[in-house]
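Re: that chain you flagged

S.,

Sorry for the slow reply, it's been a week of failed gels. I finally had a moment to sit down with the sequence you sent. For the record, here it is as I used it:
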Amino acid sequence: MRGREKPKAIIVGFSNQVGHVAVFGNVQISTQAIQALCGADIPLTYFSSGGWFYGYTHGHGHKNVLLRHAQFQTADNKQRSLELARQFVVGKIANSRTLLRRNATQVEETVTALKRLADKAATAPAMEMLLGIEGAAAAAYFSRFSLLLKDKASEFDWDNQNRRPPRDPINGMLSLGYALLAKQFTIISQSVGLDPYLGFYHQPKYGKPALALDLMEEFRPIIVDSIVLTALNTGELASGDFVSQLDAVALTEKGRRTFLGAFERRLNTEITHPLFGYRISYRRILEVQTRLLTRFLTGELERYIPFRTR
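Prediction finished late last night. Pasting the structure tokens below so you have them in one place:
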């Protein structure tokens, strides 16, 4: 592993268009550049050199105050918030179960346990119980995570999930991926008129994009975990792409670029939406799910339906 590398700004875009600008580390950006990005409605996101998502700069944004009013009313209603929280957790557990079932053997017992926990989550009578169910599901899922690593990933050890800071390469990639996914939903939430800092499952905390964390739950396994496993199992990322910094492990500049490329490819992957039956990219699905949430908040839908792969 190499030493600390000089931070740089990395531009991530859609084909020939710039979708957003991501700044990693202590990078300076001029006022003129920020104004140009705001004028073009292109968000500027800020990360630590290790991938921790600090925040973003954006233009004026959406003007739908009635939608935000409905969001705040729902957040103040414990029962309605619980209804939403159940669906976020059910989607996460279901997709974790699918990832295991498709890509590992000798996991029948864990797959059965996850199905049982998803059923419990769907009827959890209180938020505290739902938190416990999610924790049990995550423990069961990550206890079998090593079975998803193939021969080319044999140089990487997996003990268990850890973060803040991540202490091994796999957790370093998971942390970066989750930060990128949170950033994605933070931007989408604002773009459709929601407040990304007021959630229903994740509780409000200064500077915490609680709604983005809510919405990303069902996509953690099928986007981020899938990216990490594919990058390791294909040899796209190797031990030389990581650097130790104090007690933490992070990607090198080269490794980070590779991971960002993998992240963008995953978002551009098309899949059939189970609710609507047509093929769209994961990038578009993130927006579709956020808009489904707005329909629930405004009373157009009776319930929010999480995205679940088959």
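What I noticed first: The domain at 65-297 is CATH 1.20.120.920 (Four Helix Bundle (Hemerythrin (Met), subunit A)).

Talk soon,
D.
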